[in-house]
Design goal:
Blueprint lengths: L1 H21 L5 H14 L4 E11 L2 E13 L3 E6 H6 L7 E7 L7
Antiparallel strand pairs: 1-2, 2-3, 3-4
Amino acid sequence: MEKINQITEQIIGAAMRVHTALGPGLLESAYEACLAYELAKAGLSVERQKKLPITYGKLRLEEGCRINLLVEGWWWLSSRPSLALRTFMRPSFCLICVSRVVLSDCS
């Protein structure tokens, strides 16, 4: 549990540094790239735009979903500028830990 808390703190700290440095108004891809850089600089493994296959009945979609950032193989992160506007949050982008997942079938 301590390791989970430590990584979570690193993720939040990196997101705060990115937001403080960049401020509002940039494209999601800019925040994503800078956050990936900060996380890697902190020694965390980061994968950007990770393909997540889905199966619907007998149909398998190899790119059913894309994970913005997959950190340490567990934390699935998404930065969403529009969510911040819809929810009236002050930061120009929200960092969302969508899920902690184990992905065994990602390409």
